[in-house]
Design brief:
Elements (H helix, E strand, L loop, with lengths): L2 H6 L6 E4 L3 E6 L2 E6 L5 E4 L1 H9 L4 E2 H11 L4 H17 L3 E4 L5
Helix pairs in contact: 3-4
Length: 104
């Protein structure tokens, strides 16, 4: 795996932050996000909106997961799977930046 692939992989230690090239709005506890580069709108449910609000500042995946485990009744494995799936979708849509420590 090269360093570019590692930068795209979402790990427990990855630092996630919302990309600056978007605007978002709260709609009754849910969120709608407009990618300014593509002009595509994305919608998030209540939990997704909570995560979105949390990553307006850089956060480690492990910190996001711990917050979700404290706030919602969910098993750790399910939380991990769902969180990483959402983050991968947001990354593919160009809405978040993922930083990994690639120094070896």
């Amino acid at each position: 795996m090269n360093s570019k692939q590692l930068d795209r992989e979402i790990l427990e230690s990855s630092i996630i932050v919302a990309n600056e090239e978007q605007i978002s709005s709260d709609l009754g506890g849910e969120a709608v996000i407009l990618n300014l580069k593509t002009g595509v709108y994305h919608g998030l449910n209540e939990v997704g909106a909570r995560i979105w609000n949390f990553i307006q500042q850089p956060k480690a995946v492990s910190d996001i997961e711990q917050t979700l485990l404290q706030e919602y009744e969910v098993e750790a494995q399910q939380c991990d799977r769902d969180l990483k799936a959402l983050l991968q979708d947001l990354q593919a849509a160009g809405l978040i930046d993922v930083k990994n420590n690639t120094t070896i």
